[in-house]
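Re: the request from the purification team.
They wanted to know what the chain is likely to look like in 3D before they choose a buffer screen. I agreed to run a prediction and write the result into the notebook, where they can find it.
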Amino acid sequence: MYQSMSRLFHALIAVLRTGESAVEEISVAGGAAGASCPVCERRGLRGERVINSYIVESLFTIVSEVMMDELSAGLAWAVKTARVSRSLTVEALAELSGVSRAMISKIERSEAQPTAVLLSKLATAFGVTLSELIVQAEGNQERVSRCRDQPVWTDPDTGYTRRAVSPTSSPSLELVEVVLSVGAEVSYPRVAYQFTDQQIWVLSGKLRFQEGQDVHDLAAGDCLQLGAAADCTFSNPGSRNCRYLVVLNKMKPTR
C-alpha cells in the first residue's frame, strides 16, 4: 500500500507539472486564458477549461492504472499463496487447472493480467470461487463490505466487470455484481459450477445464458436457478450494458 501511495503521489506531481507547462504555453501564445495551444486543439476546448479537462483525465487514468496494478499484484500473491499452501507445484497446478505452466508463472510474477476464464480455472483447481480468489487478493476480512471498498475486477479479454459485493467473512453466501458490455461473451467450464448452487438475477439490460444445451433469454427482473453443472456462456445480445447479480451458495454443491 505504501508503494502504491508513493507511486500515486509522484504521478500526481507529474500531472500537475504538465498542467503548469500547458498553462505557460497558453501564456506564451497570447497571455489569455482562451488562447489556443496543442492541448486545447486536441480536445476542442480553450484555455482553462482544457487544462482542467486534461488534469481530470490524467488523474483518472493514473488512479485506474495504480488500482489495476495493485489488484494484479494481489492476484499474483493470492495465486502463488494458494498454490504453495496446497503443496502444489506449478506443473501440478497446470495439470489440475488446464492453464499452461508458462501462464501460471507469468501470473505469479505479475507479468500477465489473467482473464476471467483463466482465473476461474485456477480458482476451481484451488477449490474456491472466482470472487473468493479476487477478494483474497484484496486481503479484506471485514463483516461489513462498504461499496467503496468492494473489489472490482475487469476482465482484460472481454471488458466485463465483476464486483465482489459480499463481506469475505460470509461462510456460505456470496453476492457478485456483473456488468457485461454490449456484444460481450464470457464462457466458463463445467468444473466452475461443481461446488456451488447459483441463481442469476438480471438487474438491467438483457442476458443470454447458455447452460449446456439450454439457452435462457433473460430480461430485467428475471431470476434463473442454475441446474446441474454444465459448460456455461454469458452473453449480452441487447443494445446496452447488462447488469446482473449472481447469488452463490458455496456450501451446497449442485446435484
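For the purification team: Helices lie at 2-29, 38-43, 47-85, 90-97, 101-108, 116-126, 130-138.
Please add any questions underneath this entry.
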